[in-house]
Amino acid sequence: MSFYGFWQGSRRDPKGEHDKAWNRTKATAWDAKWQALSHQARLAYLNQIKAPTKEGSYTQPSTPADKVPAGPLQELVAAGFVKVEPGSGKKPGRAIPLSTAYDFSSRVRSMYRYQLLGASHRENLVKYCKHAFYNQGETVIARVLEKAKIEDVVRLEEGLELYVTIKDWPDWALAAIGSKAAKPLLEAIRKAPGPVRLADLPGLVGGFKPEEVAEALTELIVNLAVFEDIKPDTLELVVGLLPIVRNRKAEAAKPRKRPALVAVKDPKDVGPPGGLAINDIRTFLLEVAGQSPRLRQDGGLFQKEEPRFLEALPPHPGWLDDFFKASPELRLQAAFQNAEAFEFVEEEGEERASWLRLSGKGRAWLASGLEDQYKKIYENLRSTERKANSYSYSESYGDERFLGVAVNVITGQRRGGDYYYPGYYEAKPEHRKAVRDSLYKAFDSLPVGVFLRVDSVIDHLGSEESNPFIKGLDPSKVTIYVDQRPVPRLPERRELAGKQVLRDFLLNRLVQFDAFRAAVDDQGKLCVARLPRFDGYFGRDYDPGEEVGSAATRVIVQPDFSVLVIGLDPAPAAELAPFCERAGGHAGQGALTYKITRDSVIRATGQGLAASTIVARLKKHASVDVPENVLREVREWAGWVRLVNVRPITVVRCPDREAVARVVSALGKKAERLSDTLVALHAPKLAPADRQKLQENGIIVTKDDIALPAPTPEKADAPAPTLPKKRGRPKKAR
Prior knowledge:
The chain is α+β, with helices and mostly antiparallel strands and 734 residues long. Among the domains are: 3-253, no CATH class; 554-640, no CATH class; 650-700, no CATH class.
């Protein structure tokens, strides 16, 4: 839609918004003639006679007259819809649709094509609006919402789904209609059990002339309150409410009951016990620790680096990837992004190349135990500190890091005599805390370890009477913001928004970060079960206990340094992986083989694992005694490691020992004596303040060469040291 075209539509007479495909005044003039036709004649006009062109058009479609039944053709000719031109010779005559009926033909064929009052043709509503309305009907929707005092800007599809198809839309449309006959006409149509024949409308509304009823009907149609259609069996013109609007009106009149939870006793398949996002982060960091990957200029992994990361990722069942629209490549990308978000990795440049290294936080996280890893991740997600290099306000105002979606629930305040509704960026910490507490209470009502259908969980927690975002609050005084947009204060919209936020939070945070376990039932429906870690996600104490779907895991350490992990419990694998190399299998598959190598122990020691910690973990998880040769080698390998620093320094070259002593005295802790003539300054360059300190101590910095001290007589007279002679036969002279 062009900007120019939009303003054209907004300045058009509201009654003419519907005249894009046909002129309604000209089209309705043929209604009585259509009603007088037989069913066969109507069917022939729609299916056998071609559509007419506009008056003045150079082209004139036609149909062979012998292809149309004689009786219906005569009716159409008599009514003025068609004319027949005689043929010449053996050529049959031609049935030509008259251009005078162009507007009616466009209208009736549109009804026949879209069938908006049919029970299964709701998807045609968008096509109809685009075809019949200027600006696709968006101007009409905006005008009705403005009259109803609803502040929202929507495109066509969103407006039809969220507003036009709800039970209150016809009543809102009345506020934008000036005809006095519109309200009684709408009530008559609403009371009818189904669509009403167009010819019967004047008789349903008393006290108004037929032309007044026709004008009211036009305004109702233009404002999308009622719709025209063709009765399938007789092809008569009918008018009525959209079936979904009628159904929602009937449902609203019934007493509401909170949807029940649907438990699944024996799921068909359960998701990996190692979790999803955190397990992928752990696998990604282990690969980075083993060999730092090279980065492209845009910060991504080089293509040749990806295969080893993809091979290391544990495979997911197909149903899980289908539900989360994931693939190994997308999982790798998400693990990389999460590692960066949690500051577990950092970029390091070396000679025109960039490499990805583990940061201090990443090494500490890998070296910690399983539950400590979860706790550190959860603490980061709960943090409300906004990063200095972040340009997203949603983290600090909408709690997107914790919820997976930017949400704010703000209570209005009194200012003077008026009621004031704060904006999205006026959210305070207490608003964010209230949302978290409300969500915790909602999900805390679910049983631990019981698989429930996701759709039943969302309907149960998000129904209007239990909506966690406004429960216990005055709905008229609360503003809900989702993705920085205010949710209109309508029960349907708030319930819909609440369910969407609950679903996003459940799937994108609680399931992804192992506070809930995913599964699938026999019908292919997604199920979830609450884990004890759910309390940890909200910062509360919890006992990990025995995880859903996990079984006792056996760990066998063999003398050849191989480690067999048999079982589904992810804890042993997570704590052994930092100082082992994966030799076969994946976590969560029930059988995993690790190998303890010299390189893997050295790598783990560099990440902060002491020899005592490695030995303690082996003894903790091993089902049988760990072989002594393994323990001895692990201690020796870990004890052999030394940590060194590599950092740039500035070298100060001095002429003698006395100058070195002055430099060290002047610069203090910044300086380090290297030799009798060299001092290391732990800085990339000498600061002006340091130069001043040196000058005060009689040390002048110069770029000229400095003469080194002459050797002392003792050293000059001393004989040169002799090297030990090599044994063996002397080599022949060449």
